[in-house]
Amino acid sequence: MKFTPLKIVSFLTLFTLSLASAHEATWAGFESQFTPSNLLAAVDAAETEGSKTTKENNSPTCKLRVSLIDANTAKTLPGLIRVSTENGVIPIEGLVNRGLGLDEDHASAQWYALLKPTVLSLPQESVTIEAISGIDSELSDQTIDLSDKTEAKITLKIKRLHLIDDKDYYTGNTHLHLKRVTRKQADEYLQVVPEADRVDLVFVSYLLRTSEDKTYITNEYRRKDLRELSTPATIFGFGEEYRNNFDAFDMGYGHVMFLDIRKLIQPVSIGSGIMDHGPDFPNLKQGIDQAHQQDATVIWCHNSLGHEDIPNWVTGNIHAQNIFDGGTRGTYNDTFYRYLNSGLRVPFSTGTDWFIYDFSRVYAQFNTPLTEDNWLNALKAGRTFITNGPLLQFNLGEQSPGDILNLPEAGTRMVTAKAQGRHNFGSIELIVNGEVVHTVPSKKVHEHYEAEMNYKLPLNKPSWVALRIPETEETNELGGKLFAHTSPIYVNLAGKSTFSVKAAQSLITEMYQSMDAITEQAEFNNDRQQRKVLDYYRQAILQLGKKVAAHSASSENN
Questions:
Q1: Which is more confidently placed, 419 or 55?
Q2: Cα–Cα distances in Å, from 165 out to 136, 160, 169?
Q3: What is the Cα Rg of the chain in Å?
Q4: Which helix H or strand E contains 130, and what residues bound it?
Q5: DSSP label of 105
Q6: pLDDT digit string (tens) for 156-173?
Q7: CA–CA separation, 544 and 505 (whole Å)
Q8: Largest Cα span, the chain
Q9: What is the pLDDT of residue 20?
Q10: Which sign does the torsion angle of CA 335, 252, 325, 309 carry?
Q11: Mind listing the pLDDT tens digit for each residue in 234-263?
């Protein structure tokens, strides 16, 4: 059987962006479309031909040399290109397709990675080429008539957005796995796609699911392999996803990332829901404790999915929160804002889970050389913002995200904020203790959008303050709905920090509900195992309950 480019892409359609779920749940709707022979044929064909698109027709072609350069400096830029004729988008021979591993109808399948000037074989007709470089650029496009031409060249000048260029920000993806592609494809994908997207640091993580994990190609990588795979454009770090499900796709205790670990923490996956054997024991805390012993960074995955996020946040075991890394369950208001209103410090982070399906990334700010340690330290300090499009700049007086502002008495501080993006993000919103207190609409500037805020903010109570864009239906080139949110700046007033009794009580209520769910759904070998798991929730409830009682008593006395 002969495999055309479209057939190869179709056979590699093993991922769906149903953002209401995460991990293998996103694959469930596709599994029935592929017989074992089709899957095997896809991998065999890919091994032979690589992940680059090949072209199969006898129409006359033109050798077109395509270059992407910075409009200001004339330096070569890596980026993505999309080529179309009057009949629509066409495949490109010799370039890595941005949509490898994704549904063939996914928007990213229209784009190809171009790292340097390259000669492309294109039809002898009028073609339009669109180009972008990362998320911090405008889109550039040109139409060129190749009729009756055998050779030609074109240079697309890309205007970059320089909002944060002098702010020492470095981009990262904290959560990535690849599945059902060959090692050759995986190596090429990792070395090409992050550079084309202009991502500085990517963590590739190990995870297990019985039988299915035989196809998890990124499980072959270890720290040494990833360091050898790193390039001047992108550093690759090693991680592990430690997790429990009560059944195949029910999150159970939940999922956490261990980044920059020295060795795998066992068991990688807990319970029969994932591994087809064993109890739902131990809970995640045991693995998290081992990760801390390795000085690893611990990040909660998948928004609010799972039962053990709250007790681990309350007891100080989590360093950062991944938001929109393979799913959108839970809103800012009903999850992360409750943590912050309960007095917790919550650095925001993100990743893409299976393949790099979106432009999702976390920007971490620091003025030391780019290393895994320096980047993770900035992440843990909350000097971050997350986005899949708009760039954010945000200050409260002289404070930046992650900082603490100590005020002896009530006063005001000037908020200076700005956003830039290729697509219309609608507005920027100033958030104080979870509430929108000021909004500025976006406006078009040249071929991008901007919003700028200068606002004198009254500070008459302990607060956390952050900047975000609102929920929107606007999407980026890869089809992802736009999001952007900074980590908070924390404001202490007269020695007191933010604490909402209502928010804390809601977390306590949810922990009691989790205990009920564990009692009803989790499987244990004996009562001792169940008691040990539930005791951790009791510990967290007691710890947070003492804060509620102390705050209530203080309020009554005042």
A1: 419
A2: 10, 10, 7
A3: 25
A4: strand 126-132
A5: T
A6: 999 999 999 888 999 999
A7: 8
A8: 87
A9: 35
A10: positive
A11: 999 999 999 999 987 777 999 999 999 999
Q: Which of 240, 277, 232 is nearest to 259 (CA)?
A: 240
pTM (global) more than 0.85: yes
CA 164 to each of CA 138, 157, 359, 488: distance values in angstroms, whole numbers, following the listed order: 15, 20, 17, 18
**β 235-244/269-270 pair status:** parallel
- Report how far residue 318's alpha carbon sits from residue 298's, in angstroms, rounded to the nearest whole number: 5
* Backbone conformation region of residue 297, classed left if phi is above 0, alpha if psi is from -120 to 50, else beta: beta
- d(Cα 335, Cα 329) in Å, to the nearest integer? 10
pLDDT, tens digit, for every residue of 107-156? Answer: 999 999 999 999 999 999 999 999 999 999 999 999 999 999 999 999 99
From the list 196, 200, 186, the residue with the least C-alpha distance to 232 is 200
What is d(CA 380, CA 373) in angstroms, rounded to the nearest whole number?
Answer: 10
Which of 94-111 are b and which e, b meaning 16 or more Cβ less than 10 Å from the residue's Cβ?
ebbbbbbbbbeebbbbbb
> 316: how many CB neighbours lie within 10 A of its CB?
10
Q: What gap in Å lies between CA 175 and CA 379, rounded to an integer?
A: 14
Q: What number of other Cβ atoms are within 10 A of residue 90's Cβ? A: 17
Give the β-pairing of 443-445 and 448-459: antiparallel
Q: Dihedrals φ, ψ of 447, to 5°?
A: -110, 30
Percent of the chain at pLDDT > 70 equals 88
Q: What is the pLDDT of residue 52?
A: 55
What is the total residue count of the chain?
A: 558
| pLDDT value for 556 | 62
- Across 164-234, the runs of DSSP E, i.e. the strands, are 169-177, 201-206
Q: Which two tokens stand for residue 310?
A: 């709250």
